[in-house]
Design brief:
By secondary structure, this protein is α+β, with helices and mostly antiparallel strands. The chain folds into two domains: 98 residues, no CATH class; 41 residues. The chain contains four helices and five strands. Strands 1, 2, 3, 4 and 5 form a five-stranded mixed β-sheet that branches. Strand 1 and strand 2 form a beta hairpin. Helix 3 crosses helix 4. The model has no long low-confidence stretch (mean pLDDT 88). The protein binds zinc ion. Zinc ion binds next to loops. The site of zinc ion has 7 residues, from loops.
């Protein structure tokens, strides 16, 4: 198996994070793992310096409540299945309760990055829902919903 200098992986990861819209000061790259046998890349990020969070419903400042591990499938990098993982803060709004903060790389409730969704939407313009669902390992109903009601 070919070896890849660790510095190269981190340069790749930095470029990837930039393309995800992740500012260096807001999120910290904790770890990059590349599994050549499985053909996968995983990026682990965590919140950087403390920032003032706001309720996504009312915009009022909301204190940090806890955090939860989450992951999102990203576009393949060099044919490797690429996943972004993060410990995502949840905040407590006095009016709207506990909720996850908004993230720059994904839509609320999605398990894919914006880049991955854009790739799926591009394919849906020219291929059947069944073919796209198989290509991206999605439930058929989800692919159909993305086609019929594409996110903004
Ligand atoms: Zn609120």
């Amino acid at each position: 198996m070919a070896t890849v200098p660790t510095d190269s992986i981190h340069l790749l990861a930095r470029a990837l994070l930039g393309s995800l819209g992740i500012a260096d000061e807001a999120w910290h790259l904790e770890q990059v793992s590349l599994d050549a046998e499985q053909g996968s890349i995983e990026l682990f990020v965590s919140p950087g310096r403390p920032v003032l969070h706001r309720c996504h419903r009312c915009g009022e400042p909301a204190g940090t409540y806890d955090s939860r591990p989450r992951s999102w499938r990203h576009t393949d990098v060099w044919g490797y299945a690429t996943t972004l993982r993060a410990q995502v803060p949840r905040v407590r709004c006095a009016v709207h309760g506990v909720q996850q903060i908004d993230l720059p790389w994904t839509r609320r409730g999605s398990r894919r990055t914006r880049g991955r969704e854009a790739e799926i939407l591009y394919w849906l313009r020219g291929a059947s829902v069944r073919r796209v669902a198989r290509r991206f390992d999605l439930p058929w109903a989800l692919a159909a919903r993305l086609r019929d009601d594409p996110p903004e």
